[in-house]
Design brief:
With 163 residues, the protein is mainly α. The chain contains five helices and two strands.
């Protein structure tokens, strides 16, 4: 048998590895912040769940370890709620998937045949996305309004931000 030695293609010698390393380094701050923003509340909630609290007397908390989890897992109400949640989730996802696929297929058929109201239908499908953006913009405009906005009182300034 013969052996065939080939030279790596251009760019495969180390430039790609450097680009990949650079990409990871550029993404690292965003990934780290996302992990901190999500991990801290989760870990804090797990830590709090290991204590027994009485909201009337929060200073009288007592460490109970996994007793809270054992209590929940031993409750028939929790298992019934879990089953109901799973059933509702499965049904709603199935119905939404079927409706979405049916609407997408219907639109594809109708729009693919040079239908008369093609532009109107496409616009109608995009209006909900536009409404969200407009409402968010108006909310920010209201927040920074110099007369009725809440940003100026919070910061203690009289500033016409959007003038």
């Amino acid at each position: 048998m013969s052996r065939l030695d080939t030279k790596p293609a251009d760019g495969a010698n180390g430039a790609d590895a450097r680009h990949e390393r650079l990409a990871w380094l550029l993404c690292a701050p965003a990934v780290l912040i996302m992990l901190l923003v999500t991990a801290y509340p989760i870990l804090h909630a797990v830590g709090l769940s290991l204590y027994a609290y009485d909201l009337r007397f929060p200073e009288r908390s007592a460490f109970v370890g996994l007793d809270n989890y054992l209590s929940v897992l031993g409750s028939s109400v929790w298992w019934l709620a879990l089953c109901n949640t799973a059933l509702i989730t499965a049904c709603s996802v199935s119905v939404e998937l079927m409706l979405g696929m049916a609407i997408a297929l219907l639109m594809h058929r109708m729009l693919g045949q040079g239908w008369l109201l093609r532009g109107t239908l496409r616009s109608a499908m995009l209006v909900p996305y536009a409404i969200i953006t407009v409402v968010a913009a108006l909310a920010w405009r209201f927040a920074f309004d110099p007369v009725v906005g809440f940003v100026n009182p919070w910061l203690g300034v009289e500033q016409a931000w959007l003038a």
